[in-house]
Amino acid sequence: MMFRAMGQILVNIVAEIRTLRTLLLLLCCLLCEAGDETVTLQEVEGTTITLHTGITGNQSDARIQWIYRPEKSEEKILISQVFKGETVTDISERFKERLQLDRISGALTIRNISRTDSGVYLLHVINGSVSSRTFSVSVYAPVSTPVIINERGNRSVISTESCFLLCSMENAEDVKLSWYRENERISITNNTDLSVPLNLPLQIQHNDTNTYICVSANPVSNKTTSLNITQLCDVSDDRPRSRFPALISAGLFVLLIIILITLGIRLKKKNTQEKFEGLTYTAVIV
Fold it and tell me: In Å, what is the CA distance from 119 to each residue of 43, 97, 144, 221, 237?
């Protein structure tokens, strides 16, 4: 009875030790996650990214777990461990065929990343101790190219007026639209309402010789459109001087018509007179 009681006590102690060890591992995991610095990554959709863990040493015998948190939910996307001497890696269906694990460092490569893959990625490596790392990944679409138009829809302006221009683009997440004069930004706009296009006006004089560009940008890409002042801000003068070439051409054409008509009339009169004289001469001979 005595040995049986002692055996039961030892079993209980071993069970408590295992429970305590599990609790300690979980506590270490939580502490590592709470104190670990978050690595921020911003990427263009369609590219391949690698989440480098910074963990040194060979992790081939460790239990590696990657967790994805799109918002408040949590999804285990990859679990890799050594089971009966073989490495078994389980990848969630959501990332199937797009994930690749480096068993040495625990680094995770994601191919063809999309905007729906944005979120927080957590790494836990358990190999006697617990190592953790957190990644905040934001994925953006390439920004669209801005378009510059004459806001009043009329390219010609009187020399005393200003030229009113408008730079426009399709809105998207974290996009900003800016006007630059030479290398100086002179205006900027953005809008969190993605259903509203971005528009940024610019007023200049027709004789402005500065270089202007409109730039659309998000954290991972930018596009530039240069302003062609001559094309969008042509100047017309209300004085008749600008109409002289057309008037001269019209006058010359009318003058040519008059000359041709006059010559035709004279030629017709000459022919008529010659016929009349020929008839008279014939009558006298008879």
Answer: 12, 19, 23, 20, 59
Span 116-120, average pLDDT: 93
**What is the length of the chain?**
286
pTM (two decimals): 0.64
- Residue partners of 181: CB distance under 8 A and separation at least 6: 210, 211, 212
Half-sphere exposure of 26 (CA within 13 A, CB side): 6
Tell me the pLDDT band of 261, cut-offs 50, 70 and 90: confident
Mean pLDDT rounded to a whole number for the chain? 79
Residue 39: alpha-carbon gap to chain centroid: 23
Report how far apart, in Å, the C-alpha atoms of 243 and of each of 159, 240, 250 are.
17, 5, 11
**Which structure tokens are listed for 182?**
């030479």
Provide the β-strand partners of residue 158: 236
Distance between CA 133 and CA 142 in Å, rounded?
28
User: How do 234-236 and 156-158 pair as beta strands?
Assistant: parallel
What residue type is 64 in one-letter code? I
CB atoms within 10 A of CB 62: 22
- What is d(CA 170, CA 97) in angstroms, rounded to the nearest whole number? 33
Task: Give the C-alpha separation, 128 to 138, whole Å.
Answer: 33
Distance of CA 36 to the CA centre of its chain: 32
Check whether 262 has a pLDDT greater than 60: yes
DSSP code of residue 115: G
Structure token pair of residue 185: 């930004």
Position 141, amino acid:
A
